[in-house]
Amino acid sequence: MPKVLVSDPIEQVGLDLLAQVAQVDVKVGLSEEELIKIIPEYDALMIRSGTKVTKAVIEAANQLKIIGRAGVGVDNVDVPAATRKGIMVVNSPEGNTIAAAEHTLAMMLSLARHIPDANAAVKAGQWDRKRFTGVEVYKKTLGIIGLGKIGSHVATVARAMGMKLLAYDPYLSTERAEQLGCRLVELDVLFAESDFITLHLPKTPETQHLINAKTIAKMKPTARIINCARGGIIDEAALVEALKTGKLAGAALDVFENEPLEAASPLRELGMEVVLTPHLGASTEEAQVNVAIDVAEQIRDVLLGLPARSAVNIPGLRPDVLEKLAPYMQLAETLGNLVGQLAGGRVESLEVRLQGELATNDSQPIVIAALKGLLSPALRERVNYVNAGLEAKERGIRVVETRDESQRDYAGSLTLIAKSPSETRSVSGALLAHSELRITSIDDFPISVAPTRYMLLTLHRDMPGIIGKIGTQLGSFNVNIASMQVGRKMVRGNAVMVISLDDPLPEGLLEEILKVPGIRDAYIVNL
Ligand SMILES: NC(=O)C1=CN([C@@H]2O[C@H](COP(=O)(O)OP(=O)(O)OC[C@H]3O[C@@H](n4cnc5c(N)ncnc54)[C@H](O)[C@@H]3O)[C@@H](O)[C@H]2O)C=CC1
Ligand SMILES: O=C(O)C(=O)COP(=O)(O)O
């Protein structure tokens, strides 16, 4: 049974789902050292934002197939390191959208009306109304940075409260922003015009300290900022300074540069101009059930060899598209493996020719599958759908894609042409009825062979006696032939022979076969 480590608090419903297919160990609050020590035992890791999956953790994770983030942000996972190691990273892109958006709105209103401090004062026995006079959000301008899923829901509700909306999102169309009632503007305009600014973008090296002393200087001194996205997008030291010197009126923060927030953080010293919550954006009963089920299902599926729906580091495919492409991906991988073995390793470019119905589909999964096949003779199980593209790129393999939508003998067919410094090798294949794979040509010699585990392939002169000699040699080594086929372009010209074997070719036999007069080359191919 595979083993899953759950290292952050996850709703029971998710753990129950995993327990159907795996041994589930819940160990919350591990240090990095402790995690490194135990991670080699596990096939899957399920986390929230509490666990830092560093490069060192990933390097130690020799059996890990998948990291499941029960939430959105994967900035606590070294995704490039996971990709390199072929570990899939999945998340739950929508499970906590509403929770995070509602928390943002609650934070904005708490800040506007001093609810947390007023509440604390009443509970402490006071009745001071004047001190807690607030501001309205009605007719105020809300600047939304990052108009994705959470930003969009915040926009919808804020609009209903009568706010004017500005948005900055370099990856969003003006049309989509307008649908949400937002005016898409440059960042400086948003800074200058907003009364409230809310952040809903991911933390990346580009967005680190997007809010800093310089950008704060562009804001109104009466502006208030809300961050329910990620700590580190705001330079906390600059924010504290701006709040202390009246350059900014307030801040409501759910996320921090370091979590848990340090006991001595100057943010804790500030008054009611600051509202702080301990990363509660996703903490609703509903969201935690959503993300636990969403991610547990994906981990379960991947452990069962099925695809995941929200992989962060693998091309995403809708299940209906995947169903159609899966047999072609298998064909691409088999052909990639074959052409890789024929080309002998030093491949500099791979041309992927998609024909017929294949040419009308998303080609990325086909290309990735072909690269996985191409690299698998060298990298074995170290290459998979997650890292094949990256591995190929690092080896300097150039990928060229060509498409021809016309249908010839098959509904869809695929040709791979691998070029090494010394030669060019090509293989083609197609699917028969019931998704049966066929190799339909090798180096332009037409054949029709089902790929099998052990194959012997020869390039030879088409002349009497060759087939008999090779058959006799295989027989003398007690190797059983399952099928044999010869492909040639002209009588007594060059030809290929593909022999499917029931057993692996014994050592030394290939050398004997190469000595047969008329044989130009011979290969053992293991598919
Ligand atoms: N406080 C909490 O508990 C939670 C926090 N989050 C965080 O909220 C943030 C947003 O999440 P979603 O809306 O689900 O993600 P999303 O992917 O739907 O939206 C992010 C948006 O940011 C935009 N963006 C990317 N780079 C940008 C840049 N440099 N400037 C402006 N916009 C940029 C993208 O185009 C996208 O529209 C993430 O950082 C996520 O980690 C999410 C859930 C809960
Ligand atoms: O989903 C996200 O990005 C969040 O920030 C939620 O974090 P959490 O799962 O509550 O630790």
TrEMBL record:
Family annotation (Gene3D superfamilies): 3.30.70.260, D-3-phosphoglycerate dehydrogenase, domain 3, NAD(P)-binding Rossmann-like Domain
GO BP: L-serine biosynthetic process
Catalytic activity annotation: (2R)-3-phosphoglycerate + NAD(+) = 3-phosphooxypyruvate + NADH + H(+); (R)-2-hydroxyglutarate + NAD(+) = 2-oxoglutarate + NADH + H(+)
ACT domain residues are 455-527
Q: Belongs to which family?
A: Belongs to the D-isomer specific 2-hydroxyacid dehydrogenase family.
- GO MF entries: NAD binding; phosphoglycerate dehydrogenase activity
Role according to the record = Catalyzes the reversible oxidation of 3-phospho-D-glycerate to 3-phosphonooxypyruvate, the first step of the phosphorylated L-serine biosynthesis pathway. Also catalyzes the reversible oxidation of 2-hydroxyglutarate to 2-oxoglutarate.
Entry EC no(s) = 1.1.1.95
Q: Pathway it belongs to?
A: Amino-acid biosynthesis; L-serine biosynthesis; L-serine from 3-phospho-D-glycerate: step 1/3
Q: Which residues form a coiled coil?
A: none
Instruction: Kindly provide the name given to this protein in its UniProt entry.
Output: D-3-phosphoglycerate dehydrogenase
- Cited PROSITE patterns: ACT, D_2_HYDROXYACID_DH_1, D_2_HYDROXYACID_DH_2, D_2_HYDROXYACID_DH_3
Which keywords label this protein? Answer: Amino-acid biosynthesis, NAD, Oxidoreductase, Serine biosynthesis
Q: What class of enzyme is it?
A: oxidoreductase
